[in-house]
Amino acid sequence: MSSSRSIVRAWWRDRVDYRWLLDTFESHHALGPMRIMVGFGGAVLLVITVLSALSRAGVTGTGGFVVSGLVAALAAAWAVRWWFFSWPSQAESLIWVALADIASPANCVFEQNRLYGALGAILLVVIGGYVTIFHGPRVLALHVGWSVLMVLLLSVRMVLGDQEFGRDYALAGAVVLIMVAATVVVLPPLHFCHWLLRRDALSDPLTMLLNRRGLDYYLSRFITSGATRDSRGAYVITLDLDRFKTVNDTFGHSFGDEVLVGTADRLRGAAPSGAVLARNGGEEFVVVGHLYEESVRMIAERLRRGVEAMHDLPVRITVSVGGAISDTEQLLSQGAEQAIHKLLRRSDIAMYRAKRLGGNAVVIADPEGMSEGSERLRASGPA
Questions:
Q1: Would the pTM of this model clear 0.85, i.e. be above it?
Q2: Could you tell me if residue 369 is inside a domain?
């Protein structure tokens, strides 16, 4: 049960990298078709609004026609926005969602057939589908809560004044349950499954650390999120198993996989709380975090010792470790993407210097990035 709660908490705390999602769609040439489909939703809402205004059971009164006109204009603007312009930023996307969340039930309030008005709020599910794909669980929770509140109000309106059905509480309850089924029962589980599949795609199936794509997904947000807090900056540590090809050739690939899993477990135990860990490919691992009391050299050395301490294997396993740091001012002055790539490149260069020292060594790149300073903290000979 605790594992189930843990995965749900991880989902709830996840902040979707909106820009990364768009880049993923673009890389697969899918952003264009997605724009067409999202814009089509606005066009459909426009047609529904016009048909409701023309129907004898549709909107009534000057206020109703004014609201219908505004909703129709918004729906048309939605379609034009997605069809003829580039995809909006995350902030603009949220503004469009908020406008749609207000416009859809507002139009339902003026429907003469109050049952139709209450059921018309089902259009909020369409908006929820967009939120499910492009925004996080907390935004979806706000949308679902708003949707349920609106259908409750529309159902009360139906009970209090529907001339055709009168005070039909059972029908009002059924309408509410229809909306609850369409939002609470469908959208959050759909969002959770979407998140879980994305998380699986970003993880290494052997070690269950992030893979290279997962590292790219989380890294920029992770580094910049702590840049304005009380950290002294960020670090990237790259580790590469020494003579791993020889281990594979001597003991077989199954044993090599066991070494990789054991290394991942050791790094989890030795890494500071909150650090991001990834298997960057092959036998290379990356640890990223924020600097507080400890220096990057202390963290790197603890990671090196942690891997070396795997005594339950028939061969001694060691790693070459390279580290690089960037202080908070550098992180804020440079673009996040530029700062990240610079840190990764410098830590990788430092790791290869540790390799040239014979392995089982730690090399820390010069903080200024102009040259590479190094210190062999501990070396027990070639691994």
A1: no
A2: no
